[in-house]
Design a protein that fits this description.
The complex is a heterotrimer of chains A (333), B (368) and C (282). Chain A is an alpha+beta fold and 333 residues long. Chain A has eight helices and 18 strands. In chain A, 25% of the residues lie in helices and 32% in strands. Chain C is built from 15 helices and no strands. Classes of the chains: A alpha+beta (333), B alpha/beta (368), C mainly alpha (282). The interface between B and C is medium-sized, with 30 and 27 residues. Chain A: Keywords: ATP-binding, Hydrolase, Nucleotide-binding, Transport.
Chain lengths: 333, 368, 282
Amino acid sequence: MADLADTGSLQVRSVSKLFGTFRAVNDISLDIQKGEFLTLLGPSGSGKTTLLMMIAGFLDISEGDIALDGSSIAQTPAEKRNFGMVFQGYALFPHMSVRDNIGYALSVRKRPAEEIRSRVDEMLELVQLQDFADRKPGQLSGGQQQRVALARALCFAPPVLLLDEPLGALDKKLRVEVQEQLKDIHRRVGTTFIYVTHDQEEALSMSDRIVIMRDGAIEQVGTPQELYERPVNQFTASFLGKSNFIQQNGKTCALRPEKIDLRKGEGHSEARMSGTVRSVTYFGSMQRVIVDASDGTEIEVDIDVWRNSEPLDVGDAVDLLWKDEAAVELQTG
Amino acid sequence: MHDKQFKKEMLTEGAHAYKAGRMDRRTFLALCGASGVAMNAVLAGDAQAAADHVVMWNWGGQSEECHGSAIGEAFTAKTGKGLKFDTSGPLEGKIKEMVDSGNVTADVADADLFNAVSLGPTGHLESIDYSVVSKEKTLPGYALEYGVSVILYGYAFVYDTEAYGDNPPQNWADFFDVEKYPGMRSLYKWANGSLEAALMADGVAGDALYPLDMDRALAKIKSIKDNSLYWGSGSEAHSMVVNGEVSLGMVWQNRGRNIENDTDGRYKLVNNQAMAMPGAYIVPAGNPAGAAAMEFIATAQEVPAQLALLDCLGMTPSNPEAFGQIPEDQQDYAITSAKNIDKIVYNDPDWWGKNGGDAVNAFLEAIS
Amino acid sequence: MHTLSRHIHPGWLIIAPLLVLVVALYLGPILNILWLSVTDPEPGFGNYAKLGESDALIRIVWTTVRICIITTVFSVTLGYSIAYAMVHCHQRQKNYMLTLLLVSFWISILVRTFSWLMLLGRKGLVNGTLENIGLIAEPIAFMRNELGVLIGMVHYMIPYAVLPLLVSMQSLDTRVMDASRNLGASGTQTFWRIYLPLTLPGLVASTLLVFILSLGFYVTPAVLGGGKVLMVAEYISVQLLVTLKWGTAAMLAAIMLAGVLAMLWVMSRFMKLSTVFGGAAR
């Protein structure tokens, strides 16, 4: 995949999409590095799929520009953009064999049969479907279909691969497995992946960078760790993982439940807050305690079970402790 | 049809039940009301409820009205029996089917005399009772064992006076002459009349047509095939002329007057060499009204009925007594009028009854 | 009885009377026709032998098949375009088109046939207009010939062609077409390699429906053909009603029936007919 070495960076410049007067995507700018695994994460209606469809060329851009390696592709039709895409539900060609599905992009480009054949074999190996080349998509499991879709989209060595909720149709256990495979394939092919999902775990485990979107706009961009550790607002903080919001020095701060230390009884010198236990829920690796704080707020605390052998009961008085850096000051509401 | 049959049976049953006291008057009235029949009409004939009227099987449209006024009224006055209609068209195949199925619902069929020749010997028709029906009140040769000609219609032609005004076509030879009279013509699709016209055009004398020389006739028909359209019904023949699709149109002579009127005289009827077709009344075997059918036919033979049919339908009388009484304004159109009777030729129902099926097929095969 | 009921679902017993009735009412007349074709006017295969003896019969059958094929090709092609337009236009326009399509089902075939005469006849609207503006000196012979029959039949058949195609196109997953474009296929490539193959069951259903219905056409050829275009249905009717050659009629009917069944059989060799008639694809 040497031909990919110099291509695959994508520039999104002040892009908007209007449906009538409704702004589905509002003034988004984004620089995507070549070879990057970038996830667009957001609830439904956040505009993430609309943005992806504009990048793919299925939707026109209302305002702004999109460029590949610096040159605008806004006027390039979808079939000329050479972007691979894995569709929600896969959109495989039901009347074609797995081999013909995967080789389709090369076949419509009128490449020699021998080239198509060897390239398809390569892709079949990549997604480990060598034994299924002659099956029809209808004869495959969901996970296998997903891999065919991936192989089909990668077969013509696109500089950019767009993935629209590709794991949405799989059950949870399979999803984790496929996440690993996807990540592995991304490493091996070096293609820029733009991945749309509403599943935060998926986003955290696979992405180089995550773009959190809400109401057509970007809330925050960063590596998974940056986003988790330093959310800039309440939306990001609560969308990625759980978060308590407390007032500290007159500012709103986000405080992750696992970063709070809980002590039974009152009067600890470093206690930042005290309260009574309202409920305790056991999750195996940890237990979640909800505390009615004395200032009237409700605080969630995740504690390791093995480290707190002392049993907690509803109504117990507790003190809450945390380190200064655990509370992240938010920039906006 | 089945519906009517069902109602009739139901009411006849009802009439019996009511008379025998098995059904109260109120129920019977309701039954009659539901069927849209006056109670008297059902009760009048008691067990003969079904036979207190004669069912005429014709082609509907104007015929229904005209047969009613021209024959039905006189028939009712004479016998006290009513007249009803089945307007589904008594084609030979339908008559055969009706009789074969054993469910005969018609008494008198307005058909062709050659139907009497083909359907009579196979047991599908009642023979005509010539003690009631008169052999004298029709043309000689047109009173057959299983049918009698009551009216005549004919195959004549109309021409476009604007196209041929100076030198109008006179006869079938002109009709078939596409050199002298260019333009489209129309012929009857089911062979009848068309074959005879072709032979006359080819030089066969009008009284020496039968047995028809099929090969010669078809060769003549084919010779103008590119200039011909073929019609299957009177209305189609009419519209082909009125819509200007043809310059020369073979038509049923009784339509001639209407065509002249509808085209404001642009098309004119020629009755020279018109082929007189004996329209006949025939009686399906086992007809419900029995002998009353014969009285109905006899009524239709009477001069007033004959003249009324001419007036109403344009059908020409076949009763020689009526020939002299054809009114002045019908002289040009009625083929047995004093003006036309010497110019016409006569169809042979016997030949058609025996050879019609093959002739129709040969004709269809030649024109398609 | 016990072993029997183990093999036969009790539900069959409940519908058995109706099933027997339906089978009898369907098969009875068909068997009667077949019987008639070998017994009237005399027992034997004389009626079928006529096919070999008579050029005319062969010609009528050939005319029928030829006209039906041409009608089917045009109806299905035009129907395909109409169905495609309906599926891809706005809902509002689609409703209009669907209404027009359904309305045409309610108009009697006679009315539709005679309308063509008024429109395209020698003195019809089109010829009149063309003559008036001096484009033609002689009227164009649209009607009362084979062309007229084809125009009338195609017009009548298009709605029948559209409906199965519409169903087939509406059930397509449009993302599959997006996927094709995304993989670099042009519109033409996407149509021939994806859209057409995926609508093939609808296309076959539409073709079968139109062809089989066309075989039975009677009024349109009789009127618009000017008497010169003789198709089997009209010929059968003449044999039944006028010439009383019921054996010939039954023979032709049997031939048509066999032809249709043979066609279905050939089709079934290439694809599952159940998918054509809306069954599951697998």
